[in-house]
Each structure stands twice: as C-alpha cells, then as structure tokens.
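Q: what does this look like with pyridoxal-5'-phosphate bound?
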Amino acid sequence: MDIYQEQILEHYKEPHHFGELANASYTRHEVNTSCGDDFTFFIHVTDAGIIDAVGFTGQGCAISTAAASLLADDINHKPLAAVLEYSSDVMLNLLGIPLVPTRLKCALLPLQAVTRITQPPL
Amino acid sequence: MNQADFPLLNTTHLAWLDNAATSQKPQAVLTAMTDFYSTTNANVHRGIYRLSEQATAAYEAVREQTRQLIGAASTTEIIFTSGATAGLNLLANALSSYVLKPDDVILLTPAEHHSNLVPWQLQAARYGAKLEFLPMRTDTTLDLATLANRLHDRVKLVALAHIANATGTVHDIQTIIQQARQRSIPVVIDAAQSVPHRSINVQQLDCDFLVWSGHKMCGPTGTGVVYGKQAWLEQLPPWQGGGNMIRTVFLDHATWNDLPYKFEAGTPNIAGVIGLGAAIKYLQTLGFDQIQASTETVYHYLLDQLATLDFVQVLGPTDRTQRSSIASFVVPGVHPHDVAQILDQHNVAVRAGHHCAQPLLRQLAIPATTRASVYFYNTTADIDQLVIGLKQVYSTFHGYLSRTNSGAL
Ligand SMILES: Cc1ncc(COP(=O)(O)O)c(C=O)c1O
C-alpha cells in the first residue's frame, strides 16, 4: 500500500488547525533532530477540562505534518485527561497507513507534543 | 563496472546510492574473512603456537599493505582502529593532552562530520581551549583568502575533512597543510570520503595525521586506520590502556609498547583487518585510476541528470573539480524523508537527513537533504532508476511543492 495516499497529501497541503493559539492553556514544542521535524502544539481547555481550541505550527515531512493535522482534528472537543492517555495506536489508526520503523518517529512526533503538553518544558 | 563481484548487488535490483554511508562488499572480502575464521583464527601478538604466529603474520601483512596504500614511510605509523570515529577520538585525546593549554585554539571547518567536531569539543572543554572555524562560502567551499590570519599564534591544532561527507565538497588540504606546516601546527585530515576514491600519498601531502574507515572502501565494518608521522606518535601519550599497548606493568604504573602497538589496546578486530587487507588488494587490482574514472563517469552523469530536473536543487560547488562522488539535494516543498521513501519504493537507496553535519545545514538554513553518493560499481542505470523515482516524487507531490507552512526550504 502506498503511504502517500490522497488523505495524507491533502493534510500535508492544507493542514487543519495550522497556526498559533493566542490564549492557549498549554503549549508544547517537540523536535526530531534526526530529520529536522519541528512542531509546537497549542490547546485551550475549558474549566470542565474539555479541549475547545487547538493549533499547531512548525514544519516536517508529509507523514508528520499529516499526523499533526489529523491529531489536531481528533483531539478538538475531547476531554484533556483522555487525550493525555493516547497511545501510539490511536495515532496510527488515524493515519491508517503502514509505516516502516524509521517513519514511526515522524508519525509519532505530534502525539508526543500532545501527550506531554501539560508537562513542564524541557 | 564489477557489480558481479558484489553478492548483494548481484542478487537484488537495488540501486545502491548510499556509498558515502558505507560501501557494499566484494566476495573476495567475505571469503578472506571466512577463510581466516575457518583456518587461521587465533589471537595476535600472544601465542607461542604456530596458529597464533600465522594469525599475527596475516594481521601484520595488512599493516604493510596499508602502509603502501597511502605511501607511509613505515608500518610503525599505521594504527588499526574500529573506524574513523575511533581514530578521531584517539587523536583528539592524545594530541589535545599533549599540546593544548587554556585559551589555545583548535581550528576546524563548519562542514565537519560530527565525529571530527564533537571529540574536539570534548577536549576543548577539558583543557579550556576554544574552537574556531575557517570561513565557508554559501556554495560550501572554504574561503582560504584569510588563512594566514586564521592560523594565528594561539592555534595549536587543525583538523578537517579532505572531502565533506554532507556535500562532497573537496577541500584544498594541500594549501592548509603547507601553511600550517610553516607554523609547526599539526594537521589531522579526516579522509573517510577520500581514501576509498583516490590514491593518497601522505608523504607528498606532508600531513601529520590521516584517518579513515575500512567500511566505505569495500572493507568490513569495525575497521579503520590512523596514520601518524612517527615523530608525532612517539611523543604522544597512549589513549586507551589494556593488553598489547604496554611493555611492563607495575601495580602503580606501566611503560608503553613500541609503535604502533602503543595505540592498539586490547584484542583488535583481527578478522576485520584481514577483510580490510582483501579490500585493499581488490581495489589495487582494479587500480585507483580506474576506480576514480568509473566513479567520475557515473557521478557526472548523476549531476547532469539532476540538472535536468528543475524541481531539484543540488548543494555545493558548481565547479566539478571541487566535488567528489556525492550529490546532496533538496526538492523544495518536499521533506527529504518523503523523497527517500518514494525512492525506496523504486529500489533506490539514498540517505536523507543531516548526514552527521547539523552545524553545516544550520548555516545553510536547510533542515535536511537527500544525498545520493556513487562508487565505481554504480552504473548509469542506477542513476536512471533514481531519476524515475525523483519524477515519481514530483508527480506525487505536484501541486504541493510551493507550500510555505511545512517542509519549506
Ligand atoms: C567525513 C567522515 N568522517 C568521519 C566519518 C565517521 O566514520 P565511521 O562512522 O565509520 O566511524 C564519516 C562516515 O560517516 C565521514 O563521512
């Protein structure tokens, strides 16, 4: 199966939720130094603990950018507590493409930013 | 030429264009290593029995082959290591402890492989010394106009690659060595990308130290060589301690073995060195003139073909006499990982990433590149396969190439 499916390329071309969030409750920057992928996630959380706004900035390959876009779509309007528990399977299901081990790092970088978003910056 | 000598190339339709990372191995090398383990395996420089003497003789014969390969004056100047990285760490440790004082300077280039940068950073921190860098033009060639000033009084060491691994840029080491020599500054040449490709004569070059890996020249992984001028090696302290490098050991101190053993602690990679000997013999039988000519034919074809693809930008000098065997390129709008993955689907193996030269790419403001690198056994058909793959990259990402928010270059 070709990993460069229409859906992946569309998200790469026009990522959803791309841009900074001015009033973010949490932000998190993650980089993959081996390829230069670099993403920052922003979320706003309501008093009830629900994510009600998401944004991300940065640059990366088609896989990591599509992963960031798909993940941003998915976590919007979900409880933060549940999102923090996301496993890599959630991300891989969202992408829906087979990945070789070296590309897993690309696919999982945005998830890493999201699941660490409440942790103090490095 | 000679793809048939390489079992891996012979049995796959792979276009192996990652030779700057490692070369494939000819059958002669595999056979030499298997034969050694099957008939001659014993530790070296130890046994009184014949087998150990045979193993030692075979190991030392490769030292003589290596001496000849680079035109060194004596086998005492040839040290076997596990690779260029180990060699550079050996020299960084031994040389720095011998020459560096606080505020001294180590002069490098911004394009070094991490293995010729980080070991010097570690030593600079240890001795309170500083690193300085020769200026580099945007085409990644070194600007040597101010070399005389760069080799100022506090500079105690110079280290640089002969050929930069990220771009294939050939540095004018002759000029740098000559000017450093006038000031008695020792020069370490990282020849990992040049010894596999061209004949080198250390006495003509007049370099103090030359370092390379066996695995990029058809030899096995885990082998490498440090050449050092005898006068230097005699003065330098050992780096690693252990068996073989000592003469007499007391509870509280020890004395050192003769050269080159002073720098070869522990059981060496004996079978690997035997394999390296077979690789040197294989390359010398082909002849370095022939190797260079075959490589250049394919390399120039590669550069010509890349020039026909208007969505591809090649880094490095346009003057081909300043380039060797490597083409590092970007496809603006497409990340090198995506390029390399699509090429892999076309059975083309290239490297994508920072090529262990993060500071260089940072200076060029490029996060990563795709790198195709050739050796004598590559053919123009390998390049054609690459070009077909690159056209696929274009058609897959067509319409996405001008985006600015991601993967932008
Ligand atoms: C210029 C240069 N220096 C040093 C090295 C390090 O060699 P090794 O990884 O074999 O120790 C390499 C190989 O990647 C290289 O290309």
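The longest helix of chain B spans residues 50-70. Residues 403-409 of chain B have pLDDT under 50 and may be disordered.
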